[in-house]
Fold this sequence. Notes:
By secondary structure, this protein is an alpha/beta fold. About 55% of the residues lie in helices and about 10% in strands. It has 3 domains: about 1-55 and about 245-325, Helicase, Ruva Protein, domain 3; about 70-240, P-loop containing nucleotide triphosphate hydrolases (Rossmann fold), CATH 3.40.50.300; about 330-435, Winged helix-like DNA-binding domain superfamily/Winged helix DNA-binding domain (Arc Repressor Mutant, subunit A, Orthogonal Bundle), CATH 1.10.10. Mean pLDDT is about 85; it is low at about 1-15.
Amino acid sequence: MNGMSNLSLSLRAESDAEVLESGIVESKAKSEISEIVKNVFERRLLNASVFANKEIISQHYIPEKLPFREKQIDEISSDLSPSIKGTKPNNIFLYGKTGTGKTATVKHVLEQLTEFVSKQSLPVFSAYINCRNHPSKYKVLLKVAKSFYPSKDFLGYSVSFIYEKILDFCEANSAHLILVLDEIDKVKDLDELVYSLTRGNDELGKGSITLIGISNNLMFKEKLDPRTKSSLCEKELVFSPYNANELKEILVERCEKAFKPKAVSDSSISLVAALAAQESGDARTAVMLMQRAGEIADSEKAVLVVEQHVEKAKASVEEEIILSMVSTLPGQQQLVLYSISAMTIQHKGSRRITGEIEEGTLFSGEIFETYCEMAKHLGRRTITSRWYRQYINELEMYGLILITASGKGIRGQTRLIKLGFDAERIKSALEKELFK
């Protein structure tokens, strides 16, 4: 039995070696040809690649199958099913951290719904709005109106006119509208928007309007006006982060289609999954790392993606991942982080009993005071000290800051906070979000 097993392993090793060798030969042949070709773009086409379809391993690709989100798909489709029977579904609120599949799951369900209603000629319509790009009631309603009146330009018309046109569409078509508001916490006048859209159902004789709100901010709904909260959160779903095993399975399925056969080692996939799970359980981070590892393998003219390529990918995309994470934080949390980065740049630090100042290490209370001043300057409402502490804990969990107890040499007991990344880059990234 052991002999058969050893023979099998030996044959498999020989097969892998043959694949590797043939890949190297093919790569060398293409490399020699590309040296003859003068046009740089023609040479790019001739370069060997580990990718079969690079688009599939991009973070923007939505696969047909969404592993480990079957339960959420089933619940959302069940919640929306009244629309195909001519009645209004409940509003749904989805929340969870970045990269947990919220948007992909909703889009998947809506694609299935659109396919079904088009075959049955049912008056059910949907519109997807990214509130990061449309952060006000007016911009959201304008985007919705354009979805249902593609040939008309409503720019410059009043909010009330656009709102009435959406209701007219429902009445004229007995239409049930499903509006997805992604990153809903970015809407500045959200209470007014939700109130208007939900009130619209009282004005309609035919059809209905259903909202699906999506947020990365786990505490966002706690800050909603009670009326908004009761109407928006009729049904709630939480998307938990993926663990390492789940991320590995997701990557295996993607890699089978994105890369050439046997172009990715199993150990490199396991390492990517472990790194992404350790960071935040973010599937987008995992996919980004895997894609960059493949690009590095191509740049080195390798025919197999290995752990070393993943390590290099991690170093090259770490800052990109951090800046991407910063851009998805809730507005108030961004302001807290902005205060920390601004104080760090100003060389502020904690003063010890000896008079020595430890630059970059800040008192929690001083950060809160700076945050309150900045919020007032920007005309933003301020969060309570309890929410502030919660935000600080989350920033530490994301790896953006480091927290230590004050210890010896400092009067009283407090927390010392230090920024985990380059203050200038963090501040610059936040300014694009806070001052746009």
